[in-house]
Amino acid sequence: MTDPDCIFCKIIAGELPSDTVYEDDLLIAFRDINPVAPTHILIVPRKHIVDNNAFSDEDAVIAGAMFLAVSKLAESEAIQDSGYRLIMNTGPDGRQEVPHMHLHLIGGKQMQHPMG
Ligand code: 5GP
Ligand code: ZN
């Protein structure tokens, strides 16, 4: 399932370039175009799922694959010991900009505490 107007679907289809660092049958992971830290990777389901609210029972395997990709990428980025932050923005209050569900993997520097 893809959305022809979706920027991440276009990246997945190879119609737009990306710095892809991991892919499998369920996911693709590429570097954020506007990184906020030395490691800033977006882990994106190949299936066009708009946001976490649209996540269904049949998608549960995708969630598992996303977290397995995190641990693989943390190792390949050599940030598994220094640590990292995972963020999934949802909807307007979450400041989600791209309506294709994705997980941000951010590391390589110490982040500010999210609660201020
Ligand atoms: P959101 O706010 O939806 O959670 O985050 C969307 C992220 O996608 C942003 O961090 C933004 O920099 C990134 N982004 C937007 N367009 C592109 C693109 O065309 N390529 C890549 N690699 N990242 C993008
Ligand atoms: Zn999409």
Task: Give your account of this protein's structure.
This protein is 20% helix and 22% strand. It is an alpha+beta fold and 116 residues long. The protein has a single domain, classed as HIT family, subunit A, CATH 3.30.428.10. The chain has a five-stranded antiparallel β-sheet, covered by helices on one side. Strand 2 (27-31) and strand 3 (39-45) form a beta hairpin. The chain starts with 6 loop residues before the first helix and ends in a 9-residue tail after the last strand. The model has no long low-confidence stretch (mean pLDDT 96). Zinc ion binds next to helix 1.
Q: Outline of this structure?
A:
The protein is 20% helix and 22% strand. With 116 residues, the protein is α+β, with helices and mostly antiparallel strands. The protein has one domain: HIT-like (HIT family, subunit A, 2-Layer Sandwich).
Q: What is the class in the CATH system?
A: Alpha Beta
Strand content: 15-25%
Instruction: Compute the number of helices.
Output: 2
Under CATH, the homologous superfamily reads HIT-like
Give the terminus-to-terminus CA distance: 39 Å
- The H/E string reads HEEEHEE
CATH architecture: 2-Layer Sandwich
Number of domains: 1
What layout of secondary structure does this protein have?
Elements (H helix, E strand, L loop, with lengths): L6 H6 L7 E4 L3 E5 L7 E7 L14 H17 L7 E4 L15 E5 L9
Antiparallel strand pairs: 1-2, 2-3, 3-5, 4-5
The chain binds guanosine-5'-monophosphate (5GP) and zinc ion.
